[in-house]
Design goal:
This is Capsid protein. It comes from Rotaria socialis. By secondary structure, the protein is mainly beta. A two-stranded antiparallel sheet has the order 1-4. Strands 2-3 form a two-stranded antiparallel sheet. Strands 5-6 form a two-stranded antiparallel sheet. Strand 2 and strand 3 form a beta hairpin.
């Protein structure tokens, strides 16, 4: 990170493209986030684009915090972490070995960039011809059955930057909501299974006063109605008088 400001996040993505077309895809084509209203956005923490999950495969995803430095003829100065400037990691050496497990690639004999990537049809035809049987040995007819497929396509993380130094307020963010309403597929009454929840980022107290408490709650709503419930609806305290 050669910026002179504070530290920032760095994300390293190694992506396999099953359908190369000779052009480098945009970041939004590979990684994209949609909130509960179906609005698309792109951040450093965007998940794989659900519309193109059949095309791209994430082989490696690494996130790191990079302190800011100034590089002058190989000498690093102005390190972002002032309190621990002598102990900070300023440069991350990347040495990664990834087993591709037989992933196919298409190439030409000429040395050039991504614009020379071919479509891969000749290798596919060659494999098909190699597996071809004689006409007298007809393959046995088979019926392929495929179960229904359903995915949650929208996550709401557009307002995930909530700081604990908000006076009189409680950060309350909808992290995973199913789209409901006009213009979207109605899923009220249908059941959708969620396999996992991934949370990444930092929790930082930006107040200049003394330390404070931070509380992280991950809550599952059994009766979602399309609106974010208030904090008092989920968490509440009552004294002996019932207040």
């Amino acid at each position: 990170n050669l910026a002179t400001a504070l530290q920032t996040y760095g994300r390293l993505l190694v992506i396999y493209d099953k359908q190369p077309n000779g052009a480098l895809p945009t970041y939004a084509t590979v990684m994209q986030t949609r909130n509960s209203a179906g609005t698309a956005s792109n951040t450093a923490f965007s998940d794989p684009n659900f519309d193109n999950k059949e095309r791209f495969t994430i082989l490696r995803d690494i996130t790191m915090v990079l302190p800011s430095v100034t590089n002058t003829a190989g000498v690093l100065t102005n390190i972002g972490f002032d309190q621990q400037s002598k102990n900070d990691i300023n440069a991350f050496n990347i040495d990664i070995y990834i087993k591709l497990k037989g992933l196919h690639t298409a190439y030409t004999g000429a040395t050039a960039g991504i614009a020379d990537i071919s479509t891969g049809k000749p290798p596919a035809k060659k494999q098909q011809q190699k597996r071809k049987r004689p006409t007298q040995f007809a393959p046995v007819p088979q019926i392929y059955r495929r179960g229904p497929r359903m995915e949650i396509k929208y996550c709401d993380i557009a307002a995930s930057d909530d700081n604990f130094n908000l006076v009189g307020g409680t950060p309350w963010v909808l992290l995973n909501g199913v789209v409901q309403g006009a213009g979207n597929n109605q899923r009220i009454g249908n059941k959708i299974s969620m396999k996992a929840l991934r949370m990444k980022g930092q929790i930082i107290n930006l107040a200049t006063a003394l330390q404070t408490y931070g509380r992280l709650l991950v809550i599952y709503d059994k009766q979602p109605n399309g609106a974010l419930p208030t904090y008092a609806t989920v968490m509440q305290t009552r004294n002996s008088a019932g207040t």
